[in-house]
Write a structure and sequence with these properties.
binds alpha-D-galactopyranose, 11 helices, Ribosomal Protein S5, domain 2, about 40% helix, Alpha-Beta Plaits, 6-stranded mixed β-sheet, 2 domains
Length: about 375
């Protein structure tokens, strides 16, 4: 039994004094390119990684939900009839239970232990991993027969309603549908998707965690979303066929948005450019030209930092340091922003030295510790056979 599975199994036994009925592993994710476009109906290129959340569950007969988190060394108990959002880690699990009940699925009380190694607040979607783990665990435990796409929607809705972040579908989709050694090209408008082999001959994905999570992250995220909607509304007034930034061209933005509001114009411009950048980036990937894809990642960072304004000085500094380094093909902030990780494509042999140099420099410049992880691409959410 792998060590992470053993840990969650042992924790479950210690807390609940019986054996778990089943274990689910649900991974965090990276996104190569296509940031802040999922809720604008663009394309994204994420993958599930080898950092995951593990949950162990069993049924209860008294209508209670009893939870335990290893990370927080904390219990959380509530009657199923009294579920409501909390400001704790438990909210992601309760949000999923709440969605299942609202959709008419018959679930009873349950015990659940939660463990894992997806760093929290690092932009690797630990919350989506918890939600996906929970929805698959409850689906299997109560034999609900829900398909994967519906589970993704349930997880996304749980995030909206119980943590208040109006996220797109990328994180849950990547966690649920991930495939070893492949990225997923997901069309967030139609939800059509395609697996693409992600082969990096001699290079690796290195995540550099700024170890900061600026407090405005969720309010700023929701604000970006409404700014994009405002831009679409201005264009739609003249082009009724337009429903999202996916349908908008630069010409439309110049005409309908630029004269009205410079900030909203910048937000929309970034998104329209990023949608196109991803499509071109996919062509690079198909041609095996990771260097060209990497250049686009730098361009994405520039847009996220200057036009979309969701980066922060820590992430900007990290990207700046590797910009002219021939061992680094591409780098950018990843995920919602305002902290979290940068994603870097780095030559294998150069990784240890680069990490050492950046760790020292980051400490000196920001007074903070840098964490570095190599991300390998793994399968998505699955029940673990024990
Ligand atoms: C967060 C959200 C996603 C997506 C990214 C930005 O991770 O949960 O839906 O919008 O930010 O690309």
């Amino acid at each position: 039994m792998n060590i992470a599975v053993k840990n969650v199994v042992d924790t479950f036994n210690d807390q609940f004094l019986h054996k778990a009925s089943l274990i689910v592993r649900s991974p965090g994710r990276v996104n190569i390119i296509g940031e802040h476009v999922d809720y604008n109906e663009g394309f994204v290129l994420p993958a599930a990684i080898d950092k995951a959340i593990y949950v162990a569950v069993s049924k209860r007969t008294d209508g209670q939900i009893n939870l335990y988190s290893v990370d927080f060394k904390e219990k959380f108990e509530v009657a199923i009839a009294d579920i409501e959002p909390t400001k704790t880690w438990a909210t992601y699990i309760l949000g999923v239970a709440d969605q299942l009940i609202k959709r008419g699925y018959k679930i009873g009380g349950f015990n659940l232990a939660l463990d894992g190694d997806v760093p929290i607040g690092a932009g690797l979607s630990s919350s989506a991993a918890v939600e996906c783990a929970t929805v698959l665990a409850l689906n299997n435990l109560f034999e609900l027969g829900i398909d994967k796409m519906e589970m993704v929607r349930i997880a996304q809705k749980a995030e909206h309603s119980f943590s208040g972040v109006m996220c797109g579908i990328m994180d849950m989709f990547a966690s649920m549908f991930g495939k070893k050694d492949h990225v997923i090209k997901l069309d967030c408008k139609t939800l059509a998707y395609e697996y693409k082999p992600f082969v990096l001959h001699g290079y690796k994905i290195v995540l550099l965690n700024t170890n900061v999570e600026h407090s405005l992250a969720s309010s700023a995220y929701n604000e970006r979303r409404s700014q994009c909607e405002q831009g679409v509304a201005w264009v739609k007034a003249h082009h009724p066929e337009v429903n999202s930034l996916r349908d908008v061209s630069m010409e439309m933005l110049e005409k309908q948005v630029a004269p009205k509001d410079a900030i909203i114009y910048n937000r929309c411009k970034y998104v329209v450019e990023e949608i196109q950048r991803l499509l071109n980036g996919c062509k690079d990937l198909e041609a095996g030209d990771i260097a060209a894809l990497g250049k686009k990642m730098f361009a994405t960072h520039d847009g996220l930092s200057k036009l979309y304004e969701v980066s922060c000085r820590e992430a900007d500094w990290l990207v700046e340091q590797v910009k002219n380094n021939p061992d680094v093909l591409g780098a950018r902030m990843m995920g919602g922003g305002f902290g979290g990780c940068t994603i870097n494509i780095v030559k294998d042999a150069a990784i240890p030295k680069l990490v050492e140099k950046l760790t020292n420099g980051y400490k000196e410049k920001m007074g903070l510790n840098l964490s570095a992880y190599i991300a390998n691409i793994e399968n998505g959410t699955e029940e673990v056979v024990i």
